[in-house]
Structure formats: structure tokens, C-alpha cells
Amino acid sequence: MAWKEAVEQVLAQAVGALQFSLETLSVVCVLVGLVQTLRLAFSQRRRSRGADFPFARVRLRFGSWLSLALEFQLGADIVATTTAPSDSNLIRLAVVAAIRTFLNIFLAREMEQQQRLEERSHPETALPPLP
């Protein structure tokens, strides 16, 4: 029985490390997305002197990074629940997963609509399609 407790302890530490890694990746995605979005915004600002600022393009860039960050956060929640699958933790995971999934779906829809509008209005400078 001592080996079982040792294995459970190692597994709990591994799960904790994985959860922390996924949460860290989520924060890194938001940070990288912010930096890239700011770079894009400043470069577009310089190019669009007097013309309309391509706000939709900037939103698309940041939105794609936020969507990726949400995926990592959902993964971290799933991993965290595997070590403590109590009723309250499972309910919490279900609620959080539903909220994050709906946020991601609506964000993806909005990004697709914005990208189509951007391609129609400025086909020569359209961003490559989102994956």
C-alpha cells in the first residue's frame, strides 16, 4: 500500500506541474498577443495616416491569441479536476468549461465575421486565414 500512496503523490505533483504549465502558457499567450497586437497597431497607425485605422484587423490579431489562451485555461481546469474529482469540483469544471467554450465559440464567430469584412473591404492587405 505504501507504493500506491507514493504513486498517487507523484501523480499529484505531476498534475500540479502540468496545470501550472498550462496556466503559464495561457498567460504567455495573452502577453505575446498583446505585444504583437500593439506592434500591429503602431505599424498600421503609421501606414494609415489620414485613412481609416484598421481596428478590425487589430482585434482579429488579439482575439486569436485570447482564443488560444482560453484553450490552455480549459486544459488546466480539466487537469486539475482529475486529481480531485468530487461532485463540487466536477460541477465547477462543467460551469467553467461551458462558459469558456461559449466565450471561445462567440469569439471565433466574431473573428471570422471581422476577417470576412476585412477581406472584402481591403483584399490587397488581408491577413492570412485563421486556422
What does this entry look like structurally?
- The protein has helices at 2-47, 55-83, 87-121.
- The longest helix is centred in the first third of the chain and has 46 residues, at 2-47.
- The chain is 84% helix and 0% strand.
- It has one domain.
- It has 131 residues and is mainly alpha-helical.
- The mean pLDDT is 81.
Helix content: over 70%
Strand elements, count: 0
Helical region count? 3
List unreliable stretches of 5+ residues.
Answer: none
Largest β sheet strand count, sense and barrel closure: none
Give the rounded overall mean pLDDT.
81
Q: Note the beta-strand portion.
A: under 5%
Question: How are helices and strands ordered from N to C?
Answer: HHH
Number of domains: 1
**Principal-axes shape call:** elongated
Structural class category: mainly alpha
The rounded Rg comes to 20 Å
N-to-C CA distance: 48 Å
